[in-house]
Amino acid sequence: MSEYHIPVMPVECMEALAVGTGKLYFDGTLGGGGHTSEILKRGGRVIATDRDMEAIDHSRMRLSQISEYNGRYTLVKDNFKNVLEVLKAHEADSIDGAILDLGISSHQVDEALRGFSYNGNGLLDMRMDRDQYLSAMTVVNERTEEELSRIIYTYGEERFARKIAKSICEARKKSPIETTKRLADIVKSCVPESRKGGHPAKKTFQAIRIEVNNELSGLGEAISDIVSVLKPGGRIAVISFHSLEDRTVKQTFRTLASDCICDKSLPVCVCNHKASVKLVGKYKPSAAETASNSRAQSATLRVAEKL
């Protein structure tokens, strides 16, 4: 699986899920099939989704080569946010565990033609689901300066968002911005060379990717939906790669683990909310893993258990 995508914290995830023989797990972000393969290796069954048909095809091909996995996995092209519909369609009323790896796959980044990378040069695409209309090219060339500034500031936490948005709009007056290299060069001209934290275009590309794929909208609701079909004692493991994702996961877990979510100013509880999970822990990749896979460095794994 590593040729396509290196799964992050596979050992920690499997320990967190306490994978058991014959138990059913939901892998909402199949990617290269790394986590699904680890579950199958331990005797589990998997229903997995991914928005990227390339990922589905690749994983199906690789998994089919291991005969002992046959009949124990189902791969579906869909968004994990539709988890309840996917499980219902495959006659699964409940699951023993679930995993979400919210990062983009190594293959998507490394394949210049997919348009995710600021290091290569390809058409501005960034669509996880290549059947959808909205692409990075559409966002960059058709959104207003104000909209671009909001997207880059909100989703990229980029303090030079206004300057970048203005430069994009000025550049596209001359000709449409169609390649990742041209966009990266525009952003680079707006960000001081002295700034630390990787490539100058990293935050802007992240922001546009999130907008194109609507990554943050509905994330908390999807986690709640997954928890609603977990069996008692079942666990959900979520890996996030930037503060916006992790904040949503943290807040959702905290709410689900609380017996009261009333405004603190109220003298008594009136919400009747009951905790549905207990928090298991927060984990970071080991030094050995980050040394061999630099993309794991920003990963955070959070785990919760159904009560």
Major beta sheet summary: 7 strands, mixed
Overall, the morphology is globular
- Whole-Å distance between the termini? 34 Å
Helix content: 40-55%
Please report which band the strand proportion falls in: under 5%, 5-15%, 15-25%, 25-35%, 35-45% or over 45%.
15-25%
Low-confidence stretches: none
How many helices does DSSP assign? 13
Average pLDDT level: 94
Number of strands: 7
Gyration radius, rounded: 20 Å
Helix and strand topology:
Elements: H1 10-17, E1 24-27, H2 34-41, E2 45-50, H3 53-64, E3 73-77, H4 83-89, E4 95-101, H5 106-110, H6 136-142, H7 145-156, H8 161-174, H9 180-188, H10 202-213, H11 219-228, E5 230-240, H12 243-256, E6 277-283, H13 287-292, E7 300-306
Keywords:
alpha/beta; seven-stranded mixed sheet; 13 helices; 307 residues; single chain; globular; 7 strands
Task: Give a quick precis of the structure.
It is globular, with a radius of gyration of 20 Å.
Describe the 3D structure.
- The chain is globular, with a radius of gyration of 20 Å.
- It is 40% helix and 15% strand.
- It contains 13 helices and 7 strands.
- With 307 residues, the protein is an alpha/beta fold.
- A 7-stranded mixed beta sheet has the order 3-2-1-4-5-7-6, with helices on both faces.
- The model has no long low-confidence stretch (mean pLDDT 94).
- α7 crosses α8 (161-174) and α11 (219-228) runs parallel beside α12.
